[in-house]
Amino acid sequence: MLESPGAPPPHDSRQADTGLPVSVPSTALFTDQYELTMLQAALHAGTAERRSSFEVFTRRLPEGRRYGVVAGTGRVLDAVENFRFDEQMLGFLREQHVVDERTLEWLAGYRFRGDIRGYPEGEVYFPGSPVLRVEGTFAECVLLETVILSILNHDSAVAAAASRMAVAAGDRPLIEMGARRTHELAAVAASRAAYIGGFATTSDLAAGFRYGIPTVGTSAHSFTLLHDSERDAFTAQVDSLGSGTTLLVDTYDVAEAVRTAVEIAGPGLGAVRIDSGDLLLLAHRVRQQLDDLGAHGTKIVVTSDLDEYAIASLAAAPVDAYGVGTQLVTGSGHPTCSMVYKLVARAEADEPDAPMRPVAKRSMGGKSSAGGAKWAARTLDASGVAEAEVVGSGEVPSELADRLLQVELVKGGEVVGREPLEAARERHRAAVAGLPMSAMQLSRGEPVLPVEHR
Amino acid sequence: MLESPGAPPPHDSRQADTGLPVSVPSTALFTDQYELTMLQAALHAGTAERRSSFEVFTRRLPEGRRYGVVAGTGRVLDAVENFRFDEQMLGFLREQHVVDERTLEWLAGYRFRGDIRGYPEGEVYFPGSPVLRVEGTFAECVLLETVILSILNHDSAVAAAASRMAVAAGDRPLIEMGARRTHELAAVAASRAAYIGGFATTSDLAAGFRYGIPTVGTSAHSFTLLHDSERDAFTAQVDSLGSGTTLLVDTYDVAEAVRTAVEIAGPGLGAVRIDSGDLLLLAHRVRQQLDDLGAHGTKIVVTSDLDEYAIASLAAAPVDAYGVGTQLVTGSGHPTCSMVYKLVARAEADEPDAPMRPVAKRSMGGKSSAGGAKWAARTLDASGVAEAEVVGSGEVPSELADRLLQVELVKGGEVVGREPLEAARERHRAAVAGLPMSAMQLSRGEPVLPVEHR
C-alpha cells in the first residue's frame, strides 16, 4: 500500500533519488558555512582525521510535553547518502572563497564512510536520550551536522504534535491537510511525520507521490461559490465523483446544505464536512439531521484550526474524522525540537587506533553536557510498562543488554537501517502504548519517564 | 553581489529552474488533492472555464503585531512557471484514481495563462489587504491555491519576524543561522525571507548558492573540543583562516579564551563569538578585556536563542552583530500567517465575456469575507507618513490612483514581475520607514494602520 505505483522505486541505488518533485539531487549545501571552514582549519592542523563521536539529543522537551517522538530518520539516511559535492557546488564554494583549494579537493571526494546508530524512527525520547550517534573522522562527521539537525528538529516536532492529536482522536482517523500553512517541501516531510505519529491520510499529493501516504480530498467553498447555487455545486460534485464523496456544507446555511446534500446524493452520501462555526453543536445537529434523513452511514468530517485540545473536546461529539492543518505542521506551538549535535568523544591523538576521550563544553551558562558516547535502555516495571530511560557511557549492565534502544543505521558508510514508513508508524504506536498512562494526558506535565544516568 | 557566479543564471528560460540543490523540477504536486477533484467536477459540469478572481489575504495579524510583510512573491512566480504535470505525475494520479482520464488529459496540457497582481515583495500589509489576486478560468486558478499559500504563509511569517528583529538591531547586522532548526528547504526560503526583512547575511550555503545571499561562518564548540587545548584550536583556525576570523570563546572560560585569542591572532582578530551565558554581562566584560588588550577593532558577535526582545535588550551593550536561528525561522512565535485564497468574483455565466459577480461565503462562524476583486491604496498624512490602508472593490477614486499598492506580476501566463531580491529588501526598508513610529514598537498592539473599506 505504501508504494506509489507511479513513482520510481525509492532507494534502489546509490544514485540520488530522482523521485520528483520532492527530492533534491544533493543535500551537501544544506550546510552551515562554518562546517566547511572548520573542516579547512582541521585539515590544515592535521586533526581532521581524528576519530570522533557526535551525538544528537535535546536538553529538554517543549514545556509541558510528556514525551518526544523521533521522526525523520529515514530522511536522514537519504540525506547522508546524497551528501556529495558536484562541480557546480564546488565552483560556487571556490568563487565565493568559502574554503581553500585543498579543502575543495577533499570535498570533491566526500562520501560519509562512518557509522550511525540511533533510536529507530517512531520511538519516543526524553531529555538527554542519545537519539542519534554519528561516528567517523571529525571531518566526515562535522559536515553532516546541519542537515541532520534540520531534518530531525522539523520532523520530530511535527510527529510529536501528531502523536498527541492521535491520542486525542482515539480510533477516529486524522487527515493531514496543513500543506498551505508551511513551506511546500516542509509540508511533504510534515505529512510523513504525521503519518508516523498516527495520522491516517494526507491531502498533499506530493506526500502521496513521494512516500505513498494515502491521499484524500473533499472540496472548498470556492467550488460552491463557482456555481449558481449550492444545489448546482453539489450536483456537479456528486455527478462527477459519485455519492461516496464528501460535500462541504457550511458555505451558506448548514441545515439547508445537509438537506440538499442528501436529496442529491441519496442516503448513501459518503460524508459532509463542516469547516467553521461551533463544531460541537453543529456536529450534533448535523448527525441528528442526517439520521432523520436516513443517511445513517454518512460520516461527519470536521476541520477548522483544530489542535489536540479541540480534538479532545469533540470526543463525545458524533464526529467521524478530523482534518488538521496549521497546528499539525507548526508542531502545535512547538515547531522545532531544540535537538543539538555535539562532539562527545574523540581520539586522544591522530593515530587511527588512539583511545577515545570523552569531551564536553564546560563554560557557565547552562549549555554544558555530559561527554562520552552513550547507550540507552528503557526499563519496564513488573507489568511491562516503561519505568525509566537509562542512559550511560560505560559498559552496558548485563541486565539491560536486551533493553537497548539504539539500532544500526549506517555501517561503514552503507545504509543498513532503511525500513518502510509503516514500520516506524507501527513502532510509534507500540512505544506510546508501552508508556505509563499519564503519557496520554494532554495537560502540561513532566516527561513521563525519568532519565537515569549510569 | 547577489548573483552566485557558480550557479546558473536563474530564470533564464521557461524551463524548470535547475539551480540545484534547492529547486524542484515541477511544483504541480505541492497541491491538495481537492483542487484536482474540484477541477474534475467543474469540467464535468461545464463550469471549469468560468472566469474567476481569487484573492489572498489574512483576516488578522498575529496577536499584537503591528504589520505583516509580504515575502515569497518571487518564489510564487517560480512556482507558477514550473507548475506542469509530467508523465510520471500523471501516472501517479491515474494509478491512485485521484481523477478521471478527461481531467488527466486537461492536466497534461496545463499552463497557467491568467493574470496575477499583488503587493510587491517586501511591502507591508494589514488585515484584509488584498496581497495577491489570481485571475483566469476557475480551473487554472484553483489548482494554484495550495502552493501559493504554502509559499506566502511561510515566507511572510519569517520575514515579519526578521523585520522586527531588524528594527530591534538598528544599524547592527543580523546573521541568519536557523537552518538546523527548520526543514532543510524551508531553511533556504527562510534565509531569503530574512534577507528581505533586513538580515545581512546567512550561514546557509544553499541560500548563498540559490539566491546569492552573502554567507558567513564562525566555528562551533566541537572544533575546540577536537583539539587538545583551546590554544591548539584557535591556532589551527587562525593559521588556516587568518586573523580576520571569528573565534568562539565560550567553550571553557570566556576571559581566558579571549586572552588566548588575542595572543594568537593579535589585536587584528576579526571577532569573538559568545554563544551562552548572560550575554549582556559578558559583552561588557569581553569588550573591556579586548580594549585592554589593544584589540579595539575586534568585534563581538552574540548568538544563543535570540529573538527581537533579546536583541533589543542588548541595544546598549557593546555588541557588533547578532546571530539568530530558532526564533527567526519559526516566525518568533508565529510560524505561519493564516493567509487564505478565496474566490471573490466569478463570471455570471459560462460565456467568455459574461459579467463578473462578487461572491463570498456567508455562513455563520466568523469566516465570511467581502466579495469582489479589490484594489488597495495607502494614504499619507501631511508629513508623508502612512495614515491608512484603503481597500475597495469598485472604481478607484481619482485621488488614490497614484497610491495604489498592487503591481502586475503575471500577464497572460507570462511572468512580468520578476525583480532582484535586493529590490524587495530595499522596498521593505522603505515601507517600514514610511509607517508611523509606533510600527517600530516591539510591544503588543493593534495594526499600525487602520484598514478603510470603500
TrEMBL record, chains A, B:
Keywords: Glycosyltransferase, Ligase, Phosphoprotein, Pyridine nucleotide biosynthesis, Transferase. Transiently phosphorylated on a His residue during the reaction cycle. Phosphorylation strongly increases the affinity for substrates and increases the rate of nicotinate D-ribonucleotide production. Dephosphorylation regenerates the low-affinity form of the enzyme, leading to product release. SUPFAM superfamilies: Nicotinate/Quinolinate PRTase C-terminal domain-like (SSF51690), Nicotinate/Quinolinate PRTase N-terminal domain-like (SSF54675). GO terms for cellular component: cytosol. One of its GO terms (molecular function) is nicotinamide phosphoribosyltransferase activity. Its EC number is 6.3.4.21. It holds the Pfam family NAPRTase_N. Gene3D superfamilies: Aldolase class I (3.20.20.70), nicotinate phosphoribosyltransferase (3.20.140.10). Residues 1-22 are annotated as: Disordered. Pathway: Cofactor biosynthesis; NAD(+) biosynthesis; nicotinate D-ribonucleotide from nicotinate: step 1/1. It catalyses: 5-phospho-alpha-D-ribose 1-diphosphate + nicotinate + ATP + H2O = nicotinate beta-D-ribonucleotide + ADP + phosphate + diphosphate. One of its GO terms (biological process) is NAD+ biosynthetic process via the salvage pathway. Residues 29-153 form the Nicotinate phosphoribosyltransferase N-terminal domain. Belongs to the NAPRTase family. This is Nicotinate phosphoribosyltransferase. It comes from Streptomyces cacaoi.
